[in-house]
Design a protein that fits this description.
about 375 residues; alpha/beta; FAD/NAD(P)-binding domain; D-Amino Acid Oxidase, Chain A, domain 2; 7-stranded mixed β-sheet; 5-stranded parallel β-sheet; about 35% helix
Length: about 375
């Protein structure tokens, strides 16, 4: 893009993909504004641990000039995984990485977000700015409307605002649909001292145990924390039929333990010994593939563009989207040329991965 032009670029959403895009733009001297509805970086927890793939997430981090800092924060030992028999607790299969294996090191999502936030110029992220919608204009610009009132115009608005994107309706009428699988999340703290047996079952990375329609997926995070997901093939309103209130931890625990009758008692310790309550997380996905006709002045990245089941692809892909879109904005002569070039690569790639992860969810948790 001609260095004499300074297109006004707004990124809606302060997640990994949007922040990565902003970082690459700023590295090349491009102005960018990020609007985030949350009031501060500490407003909520950022979820579990992520493995950064060499062909996607690590490529994006290298483009952002942050790969070495990421490696210093990452946990290569977190690549370990094991599959346990749900009845006996015996290890059926697994993999322990070699000492020098850093192909897909793990990092807590919160630490990675903090790394990206710290790399941006002060004031880049406008906290507490909730976007209510966007309106593309015939001149190729786009208007951002804020829930708090008021609006601003930009040459490009990038929707990086996740599953329930407020920018997506500017290009597509698609909405996420329930996949048939719900994760019920909980966690345990100080596992090596307070829950050594569960720490041993988990190992240094990810542990899985599954049966038809049910699974336990357990991730070791940094700081001695373990994150637990009870995975269920259930209707989206499953807890309504059981009259469950997620504020009643003991009632939810009893319901889950009943659903896991016959499982190894040691594995059920992940549901009995949790230090936090339970959180209901139904999994949604956009159509696979999801595409749209190009609209000047607006585009999407990450979950806003291609929400898919959480099988280790989404965060990596969002960051690669962000890097490639920023690089196109730097390289192409106009904003519209850049967005067209980006979408011509991103949409087919995401479509193939969305289909693969939909199939993968069926294999991971068969009915």
């Amino acid at each position: 893009m001609d260095s004499s032009t300074t297109p006004r670029v707004a990124i809606v959403g302060g997640g990994l993909g949007g922040l990565l895009c902003a970082r690459v733009l700023q590295l090349h001297g491009r102005p960018v504004t990020v609007f985030e509805g949350e009031p501060s970086p500490e407003a909520r927890g950022q979820g579990g641990t992520l493995d950064m793939h060499p062909e996607t997430g690590q490529v994006a981090l290298r483009a952002a000039g942050l790969l070495e800092k990421f490696q210093a924060l990452s946990r290569p030992e977190g690549q370990e995984w094991r599959l346990l028999d749900h009845v006996t607790g015996a290890v059926l299969s697994g993999e322990i990485p070699d000492g020098g294996d850093e192909e897909r090191p793990e990092i807590d999502r919160g630490r990675l977000r903090g790394l990206l936030l710290g790399s941006l110029r002060p004031g880049t992220v406008h906290w507490g700015h909730s976007v209510g919608g966007v309106t593309p204009h015939p001149d190729g610009t786009c208007q951002v409307r804020f829930r708090e009132g008021g609006s601003e115009h930009f040459d490009l608005v990038i929707g990086a605002d996740g599953a329930w994107s407020r920018v997506r309706p500017g290009v597509s009428d698609a909405v996420p649909a329930y996949t048939g699988v719900t994760f019920v999340e909980t966690g345990l703290d100080d596992v090596d001292t307070r829950h050594p047996a569960l720490a041993g079952l988990t190992g240094e990375g990810t542990m899985m145990a599954k049966a038809p329609g049910r699974g336990l997926f357990v991730q070791r995070n940094s700081g001695g924390h373990i994150r637990v997901y009870a995975a269920l093939r259930v209707p989206e309103d499953w807890y309504v039929a059981g009259r469950l209130d997620f504020a009643d931890t003991e009632a939810v625990r009893a319901d889950l333990l009943a659903r896991y009758t016959g499982w190894d008692p040691a594995l059920l310790g992940f549901l009995r010994g949790n230090d936090s309550g339970f959180v209901n997380r139904p999994l949604h996905a956009l159509p696979a593939p999801h595409s749209w006709d190009h609209v000047p002045g607006v585009t999407l990245l990450g979950d806003a563009a291609h929400l898919m089941p959480p099988l280790g692809v989404g965060a990596n892909l969002a960051m690669l989207d962000g890097a490639e879109l920023a690089q196109a904005l730097i390289a192409e002569p106009t904003v519209d040329d850049a967005v067209r070039a980006y979408e011509s690569v991103m949409l087919p790639r995401a479509g193939e991965l969305a289909k693969a992860t939909a199939e993968g969810l069926g294999h991971l948790l068969p009915g």
